[in-house]
Specification:
Layout lengths: L1 H10 L4 H9 L8 H12 L7 H32 L1
Length: 84
Amino acid sequence: MAKNETVISDILPKAPILHGIASLFDFHGSLDRDLIERIRAKYRNPAPIPSTEDAIRATWQSVGDSMRWAIREYERELDEKERE
C-alpha cells in the first residue's frame, strides 16, 4: 500500500494525464479509494425526507401567500382607480 501512496503523491499530481491513464488500469479501485469512501459516506446518511404533513402545510402556506399577494395587488389597483 505504501508503494501505491507514493505513486499517487509523487508522480500523479505532477502529470494529470498519468492519473487518467493509471485510473484506466486500476481495476481494483485502489487509486481513488478515498474518493469512493467520501461518496459512500455522503449517500449513507441522506437528508431526511419531510413528512406528508410538512409537505401539505408548505403547499397550503404557499397558496395562502399567493392569495394574500393577489388581494393586496387588487386592492392597490382599486385605490389607484379611485384616485383618478
